[in-house]
Design a protein that fits this description.
single chain; 152 residues; mainly alpha; 76% helix; transmembrane; Anti-sigma factor; membrane; transmembrane helix
Length: 152
């Protein structure tokens, strides 16, 4: 079908647009459209001419309603039932896991388990942290000195 004359392409395109092709002709025309730019140009020209000869739609809202009413709703009901089957049980919900983690943390805090994990003198750790200034404070000092120099 790749070696068709322009007239043969025009006839096949007209049959395709009007819906008079066989399945084999439709498939071959669609592959030809993908491969041959001349066939694509011819197809677009014929579509444009058909579009001009078509009457205008009188009531587009009614047309839309008719199309939407013709869609079978049982297809969507199957999707909804599938979603309901996939709903998680209450103990599979992430909020449940967060609540359990919070309860375990409170239990460990109240029993002193976290205090038992750290052995040794905590004042040494506290002194070491006080000796170094926080990064945010260092940045604030640098910014303030830069602004003071800018004002001069």
């Amino acid at each position: 079908m790749k070696h068709l004359s322009v007239e043969d392409k025009r006839i096949l395109a007209q049959l395709y647009i009007n819906g008079g092709c066989t399945m084999e002709q439709e498939k071959s025309w669609e592959t030809l459209l993908l491969e041959d730019t001349e066939a694509m140009d011819l197809h677009i020209q014929l579509l444009s001419s058909v579009e001009l000869s078509m009457p205008d739609m009188m009531d587009s809202i009614q047309f839309t309603d008719d199309v939407m009413n013709s869609i079978p709703f049982h297809l969507y009901e199957k999707e909804e039932s599938r979603i309901e089957q996939q709903r998680r049980r209450w103990f599979e919900h992430p909020i449940f896991h967060y609540a359990v983690a919070a309860c375990v943390t409170l239990l460990f805090l109240s029993t002193g388990l976290f205090d038992k994990l750290v052995t040794g003198d905590l004042t040494v750790i506290a002194k070491e942290q006080k000796q170094t200034t926080p990064y945010s404070e260092q940045m604030m000092d640098i910014t303030v000195t830069w602004l003071d120099q800018l004002k001069r």
